[in-house]
Automatic annotation (TrEMBL):
Residues 48-176 form the VanZ-like domain. The chain crosses the membrane at residues 6-29, 41-66, 102-123. It holds the Pfam family VanZ. Keywords: Membrane, Transmembrane, Transmembrane helix. It comes from Sporosarcina limicola. This is Glycopeptide antibiotics resistance protein. It comes from the Bacteria.
Length: 191
């Protein structure tokens, strides 16, 4: 729990800087596009989504400002063996009684992409397909992992499928929510 709170604390400065920039950007974007009647729910959703993306990138690719644990740059920090996360987490839990890798590396990599899978189709009709959301989740994850190769961070092929799974779960939550509360999706769409 301390590690999660540490990540959240590290995100806050980025969010405070990004919020006014995002608000100004959205104001000019809507003026440029000639949007006369702004759907405030959609705008709030877009701002929240952009803040979420800022938080995600602040902890994954902005390593020159990174305040977390230092990882040395070497190929030993690159995992190209699929599903090694299961072996590593099993060892950490059974031999070391250490649950943090499971919570951060396994569950964290899934949970951090759930908002992407949920918010994309909620806010924009063009992302209202499972395959599109899955492809975007994979693309964002691939971008992060490739960027981390050039930095003092670890890069892991398991993160790709865990992140993509998270976006798929997010889409499934959106799909179920839309079935249970049909007008929910309509509220957040641009009119």
């Amino acid at each position: 729990m301390t590690a999660i709170l540490s990540y959240i604390g590290a995100m806050l400065p980025y969010l405070l800087i990004a919020l006014p920039v995002i608000l100004i950007f959205r104001l000019f974007y809507n003026k440029f596009k000639g949007v006369e009647k702004v759907n405030h729910y959609h705008e709030i959703g877009v701002v929240i989504f952009l803040l979420f993306m800022t938080a995600l990138f602040s902890q994954t690719i902005l390593t020159f400002l990174y305040t977390g644990p230092v990882v040395t740059r070497s190929f030993s920090n690159v995992n190209i063996v699929p599903f090694r996360v299961f072996q590593d987490n099993y060892y950490a839990i059974t031999e070391l009684n250490f649950w943090q890798p499971f919570i951060i590396n396994f569950l964290g990599n899934i949970c951090i992409f759930i908002p992407i899978g949920f918010m994309l189709p909620l806010l924009w009709n063009k992302f209202n397909r499972f395959w599109k959301v899955s492809l975007i989740g994979l693309s964002i994850s691939l971008f992060i992992e490739i960027t981390q190769l050039t930095q003092a961070r670890s890069s892991d092929i398991d993160d790709l499928w865990l992140n993509t799974l998270g976006s798929m779960i997010g889409y499934y939550i959106y799909f179920i929510s839309k079935k249970c509360v049909p007008h929910l999706a309509l509220i957040f769409k641009r009119r």
